[in-house]
Design brief:
This protein is α/β, with parallel strands linked by helices. The protein has one domain: 3-Layer(aba) Sandwich (Rossmann fold), CATH 3.40.50.300. It has 12 helices and 10 strands. A 6-stranded mixed β-sheet has the order 2-7-1-8-9-10, with helices on both faces. Helix 1 packs across helix 2. The radius of gyration is 19 Å and the shape is globular. 32% of the residues are buried.
Length: 307
């Protein structure tokens, strides 16, 4: 208990400063402090224990529906693990490994027009991620540059702006909406679940291709992950609301060009994610090592540790 209090006082100011920088203004200070004490610090201790047991680079998968707060959760864990436990942490977003707009345009021409839109399995450079994770496991770690994706312009930044990883991380957090997703049966694939699938994927080609990617390349990638942390949303209806708030936050960032999605554009955009998100709620609720259960107001209701 004394050690937990020591951790709290050591990280509190950095944590609150981080939330301010992230434009988290819709929560009271008391709610933020409560989340730090009741959820983030216990989760950090759990991660530290997993790392100590493994005694080499620990790879964590962090997933949850769009707008669920994955980036904020990962950033908070980094503060605690780095400042209190003195661990070398690297957070990698699967979003940064999206294929370029040129590559997705090619996919839209020879596979299906819907692949012009980033997001679903098949639109990431999986080999790049696997190469990075493999390097973190080697004793002689060599510096590596990882891509950085500009969502406002829907393309990768130029290489001079990429992330440069010089030191071997002790803990890697791979965060992303589809991290840990599993394929569906053919029976489930056949039934359209929204207007996008019904009108734009009548022959099922798009969703079948995505499902095949989950069965193969993505399955191999996710098998490299040691433990999964799943942020469970109350239902899919909150995704539109939360994703819209996320887009409004992007507008406040001065370095971004103002190519921000409108409400109707977001409404269509999240349809691309709906099928897999709903399936993940079923699958990851059973298979994830840790489940963070969210309330409708975006706060953490409870955290479950399964192992």
């Amino acid at each position: 208990m004394k050690e937990i209090e020591e951790c709290f006082f050591k990280v509190k100011n950095d944590y609150l400063r981080y939330l301010k920088n992230e434009k988290i203004f819709n929560k009271s200070n008391s709610a933020k402090i409560e989340a730090l004490k009741n959820f983030y610090i216990p989760l950090s201790y759990w991660i530290e224990n997993k790392y100590k047991k493994k005694r080499k680079t620990l790879i964590l998968g962090l997933s949850g529906g769009q707008g669920s707060g994955k980036t904020t959760v990962a950033g908070t864990l980094k503060i605690i693990l780095n400042k209190f436990f003195k661990r070398k942490i690297y957070i990698s977003s699967i979003d940064d490994f999206y294929k370029t707009s040129i590559e997705r345009n090619k996919m839209s021409s020879y596979i299906h027009p819907l692949f012009k839109t980033r997001g679903v399995p098949g639109t990431h450079d999986i080999n790049f991620i696997k190469s990075f994770l493999n390097r973190t496991r080697k004793k002689n770690f060599k510096a590596i540059k990882l891509p950085k994706f500009d969502k406002a312009n829907d393309n990768r930044y130029k290489k001079k702006y990429w992330f440069h990883i010089k030191k071997k991380p002790e803990i890697v957090i791979l965060e992303g909406w589809c991290v840990g997703a599993k394929p569906q049966t053919n029976f489930l694939i056949k039934k359209s679940i929204n207007e996008l699938e019904k009108n734009d994927d009548k022959n099922l080609k798009w969703r079948k291709y995505v499902n095949e990617k989950l069965k193969n390349e993505y399955k191999k990638l996710f098998a490299m992950i040691d433990e999964f942390i799943f942020i469970k949303i109350p239902d899919f209806n909150v995704v539109l609301k939360w994703r819209f708030l996320q887009e409004k936050k992007l507008k406040k960032r001065p370095h971004l060009k103002k190519k921000i999605m409108s409400y109707n554009e977001i409404k269509r955009f999240i349809m691309f994610y709906q099928r897999i998100t709903l399936q993940m709620i079923k699958d990851l609720s059973k298979s994830a090592s840790v489940i963070m259960l969210l309330k409708r107001n975006h706060e953490v209701k409870k955290i479950y540790f399964k192992n």
